[in-house]
Automatic annotation (TrEMBL):
This is Heterokaryon incompatibility domain-containing protein. It comes from Apiospora kogelbergensis. Pfam families: HET (PF06985), Het-6_barrel (PF26639). PANTHER family: ANKYRIN REPEAT DOMAIN-CONTAINING PROTEIN 39 HOMOLOG-RELATED, HETEROKARYON INCOMPATIBILITY DOMAIN-CONTAINING PROTEIN. Residues 41-192 form the Heterokaryon incompatibility domain.
Amino acid sequence: MTYLYNPIQSNQIRLLRFLQDETQISAALEIFSLDDHLPKYYTLSYTWACDQAVLARSWSLLIGQQQLLVLDSLKPFVQALRARDLLLSGRRWWIDSICIDQGNLEERGQQVQLMHQIYSRAADVVVWLGDHSVNSSLAISFIRHLDKIYLQNYSVHDIRTMLQKEEYKSQWAALTNLLARKWWTRVWTIQEFVMPPSLSFWCGKEDVSRVAMCNSLSVADKCKSTGITETLGFRHGFSRRRACVLYRAEQEQEPNPRRSLVSLAAYFCSSDATDDRDRLYGLRALSTDGGSLLEVNYSITSEEVYTRFAKAFIQHSRSLDIICFASVFSAPPGSGCPSWVPDWRKRGELLVVPVMVSQSSNTNIGNLRAPHYLDYDPSVYYTASQQRKAEYTFRGSLLLARGAIIDRVDGVAGSEGSGLVQSLEGNSASSPDGLSSSGRSATDILRSVCRCLVLDRRDRFLRYPMPTDEFLGDFVRLCTPLLHEAHGSAPKALQEWFHLTRPLRIDGRSFETTLRDGHRLFADFRGPAPNQDEFYHDSFFGRFYETVVRMTLRLIVSRKGRVGMASHKAREGDFLCVLYGCSVPVLLRKSDNGLPHTFVGECFLDGCMDGSALEQDDGLSEETFCIQ
């Protein structure tokens, strides 16, 4: 007889206890209230499908006189319990596929909302990575070795000298294989890794602590030449380490920690989920605002989940900043998501600050920067709408938002796969005295372009303003060889950017002409040679690499000669707008048939990031934008 679950209340959970290990394993499912004292129990974090298999249930547990079909991926774990003499030890376990009635959508939703309590109150969480493999024991041994090195506080140079040797090649390969296991890719395992007070990893008969695992990943991150940091498995592992370290630091240092569900969903965008609704539900317990913004409901579609979440964010914060994530997480054609709603199914690169509204001083969103970067200058803040609250209404899936048109796009620099686009006019012609028709000198234009390329910020977390003289000097000195035959002395990423941007006309002159006119002023510039390593994030080139290469933003110029940065989706004629309640300007596109606008993305517009554009009396008028 197939097992039938007894119903439970919204504040109750079931715990599994193995009873007999005979021809068939028998077990009991006991119900406990979270409002009462719970018995000691353990929680399992695992993947439902084996690494090389589809979801399957080919064996069962005997509960009373009924048979409960169990996932095949749990069979090796039960064998591991038997090998450790823990199967009949009396331990109680919470295992989601067994302890939740998966066929009851209402119960599933209720149990997901209890995840924080379930994992934080467990005596220990066991991460089951799977059975042993050819070199899994070597990987666990290497993790312990890296943990010891971490605790010795060696310098980066010493770590690389010790570990970037041929003799460690097999160890690095073993660790790479361990990080390639499916557990590291699943969205549910993120909060299961981060939240519990105690957690250990099991792989076959081997085990290792979470602390050792995190320390080993920190050491591995410094060993670039081994190639491990370029693997997807390492990125998944290191992103979990970042979230865990931040979670612990905030608990110790921050009276009111902030982990917005938006920032978590964006940072972990490359994780796998069988059910796309879980791209939000699976991170809800780890966030500090998910409980108030998102109700777990498995009876509605993914598109409806995403739309409801976006609406709830706007209503709760009176801010439109969440729509800027649709710059990166844009819905595919034919999707049920409106253009202003981020579609969290879209895969992207792991970026701590994927969009400008992720700026550190944004209390509604923020980012997952490391603990030693938690400080910031609260006065450094994009305020394109002068901190005005959003003025909006919803009409079904339409967003009606008040704001103003600042300008229109005239030209967009080229990018990989897209050529440069610009109107025939090129905004205006230059003057014979070397000044543009707007009166700006070549140096003024280069300074503006430099601000755009780094989003006017010194660091990747957008905490501090750009040091103008330092960054402008580095920008021009790095670009100057591109005007001559010495292309090889410039970073490859800058060479590619210059090739695609050089014809873009700003105030009637190509960028290349402007650079030729302006670079001579920096010939006698005194200072250290410009950094050319993208890993130094607080340098001009580090910021350029983050903005142009990782965030894939392109230089744009407006019809009034303003310079800015926008996504690859920007086109000539797009409206440059400020929406009330949005920290940064946005691009809107009007359809040919005059129907509602489409949201294109956020943009940086030099001179318009502090709200000053709204103060200019040049015919600006408020209007209500209908965005579909």
